[in-house]
Every structure is written in structure tokens, then in C-alpha cells.
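Workshop exercise sheet. Pairs work together: one partner reads the sequence aloud, the other fills in the structure field after running the prediction. Swap roles for the next sheet.
Pair: D.N. / O.F.
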Amino acid sequence: MSINNNFDNYLSNEVKLFGLPAEKGRWLLIPLGMIVLLCLGTAYSWSIFRNTIEKSLQVGAIESLLPFTIWLVVLSILMPITGFYLEKIGSRLVTTVGAIVMGMGYIASGFVNSIPLLIITYGIIAGAGVGMVYGVPLAVNAKWFPDKKGLAVGVTVIGFGLSPLVTAPLARNLIAVNGDKGWQPTLIIFGIAFTLILLAIAPVMKYPPTDWQPAGWKPPMQQNNFNNDSNPPLLKSLNFYGLWLCFTIGTFGGLAAIGIASPVGIEIIGLDKNTAASAVSLFAVFNGLGRPLFGWISDRFQPKNAAIVSYVLIMIASIIMLSATKGAIATYIVAFSLIYLAFGGWMAIGPTSTLILFRSQDYAQNYGIVFTAFGMGALLGTVIAGNIRDIFGNYLPFFLITIGLSILGIILAVFLLKPSIKKSQLNLT
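Structure field:
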């Protein structure tokens, strides 16, 4: 026993990261991964660009939302494609290529003068670059933290949710300095800056050696004489279809909320534009907090229970919003904070569930496929919310839909998010 422990310690200490033993150096990958995702999550600040784009291009709200919607869809499509090639091409090369593509999209967006061209440059090209890079820090950190997968992935993905806290004020100030068409030089500056940051971090985005593992840690399947291959392939598992549907429902309300939070505050609660913008920044904090919180819940209490908790929060928030009236600022803040918290949670539940429920060696491509649910949630959420606003004159009926979908999500989670290997099997020796 002591010989095995000594060998484990040797392997752990022999590998170096940032000049430190891997056991310590791996923790630096988490803040670096957060920075990568913070750069990628700039699209969550798209609402800052919309007003000035509408004025300079003489377009309406629906047209100004299209580049963002396409960006979300393209991101979700590129994730699985990149996942299939990540192991073959290498995480560092994928990060480098994705950073360049994203930067080209942002920079090109600063030179166009129409929504169709902006859809191509921002929605498709920049979205494709983000889709290439998004899964890399999650996959890399998941491999370096096999003993703390949920925590590592959950904390890393905070960067994406908290991006508006950094990029929204930057965008607002840069746009103000550059006048009526300030969105164009702002996108160029963002493209150059984020590309340089990602290229600087790309060389350290690498997997651990195949024989490396944290000192004293053994894979659970090995400890119980089970091979991880005993889990069925993704597309042959009922868990996948349950997780995909649950992920779609979980992101449906959250992605719609990102688009409607400000107008709901202005139209229903009666906030002024500056106060509504400040509230959106506050909601971004809950979006970020939801990621490590639900990563921990998924690890500690299983993905099924994490999903149920998220749906209960959405239901509570939706019921609260249905009673909202003019001046009910506390109601608005509490409701949308819960929605953002639950949405952020799904950015951790999704990858953590993929690690737990399916073969971990196939994580990169598996989560890419699961992440297509994000695109479906984005498309359905934004389109349905917009149509409800046009038909009913306000967004309140949207919250009836989120209540119904949350009930459906709880049912799906209970029956379809079950580990392939039962606890009774895991206790065998």
C-alpha cells in the first residue's frame, strides 16, 4: 500500500506546471480559464451595443438582436464539432485558431454598415471562434482536476457569466468616447485585445500526461473494479436525451432573461435606463455565482438534484414576477437574480453532468453535443419572448411558460437523469 502511495506521490510531484509541482500549479489554470471565458463572454454585453447600432444603422429592436442570436446558435454548433477534434488537434492549437477567428470576426464587425453583414462577421465568424475555444478551458481543467471536477469546471465557467461586469462598462465608455458610431471602433478594440490575451494564454492550455493523477487519489471506477467504459456511449444513453432536454429548458428562460431584463425593468417596473443597466450588472453576479454553486451541488448531490433545484428557483422567480407592478423594484431584483442564478447553474450542471453520467475520456466531444441544447434554448427563448411582447404588449405572460417548462423539467430530471451504474453496484468489492 505504501509503495503505491509513494509511486502516486512521485507521479504527482514529477509533473510541473508554471514551475510548480502539478498538484499546486494546476490551480493557476482555473483563473486563466476564467480569463479565457471572460473574453469569450463579451456577447452577454450585446445590449450595450444595441441602441447605438439601431440609431446608426436605422434598424429596429428585432434586427439589432439578430447578430447576438446567431452568435449563440453558431457557438452551440461549433462546440460539438470542435469537441470531436480537440483530442486529435490539441487544446493549444484549437485555442490559437479559435482566438484568431474570433478576433477577425470582431475586427471585421467594426467595418460593416448593415445588419446582414454584422450577422456574418459577428454572429457567424466571431461566434465560430468562440465556439472553438469555449470548451477548451473546461476540458483542460476537468482533466487536471479529476478529484474536483464539479468545483473546477464550475469556478472556471464563472468567467463567461461575469464577463458583462468587465466588458459592459468598457463597451459603454468606449462607445461614448467615439460618438454615434462608437460601436464600430469598440468592436475593433475588443477584437484586438481579446485575441492578444487568448494567444498569450493558449500555450498553457494543455492536458496532463496520461499517467498523471493527484496524489492519493484513485478513479472511483478503479476503486470499485469498474471500468469507465461500462457507461454506454452518449447517443445510446437515455441520460443524454434527458440531459439535452433539461439543458434546453434550463437555458430557455435564462437566455431570454438576458435579452429582456432591461426592458422588463423599464416597461413593467418603471426603472430609468441607467438603473435598469445597473440591475443587469447585478444579475451578472448571480449568473457567475450559480456556476460554482451548482457545480458543487452536481458533485455532491448528483446532477438530477441540481437540475431540480434550478427549476424550483425558476418557478419561484416566475411566480414572483407575475405579481410585479410599477415600483416593485425588490420584486424585480429578487426574481431576475434567481433566474440568472439558475441559468448560471446550468453552465455548470451541463458539463459536470456530462463528466458524471458519460465516459469521461470522451468528455470534449460529449459536452460539445450536449451544448447544442444551449443553442436551442437561445433560439426558442429569444424568439418566444419577442413574440409574446408583440402579441400581449408586455413580457409577463412569458413567465407562465417558464413555470410550465420548469414543471416539465423536474419530471424529466427525476426519470431521465439517472446514473448508468447504480450505487448498489458501486459498493461491490
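Discussion prompt: The two ends are 17 Å apart (CA to CA). What would you look at next?
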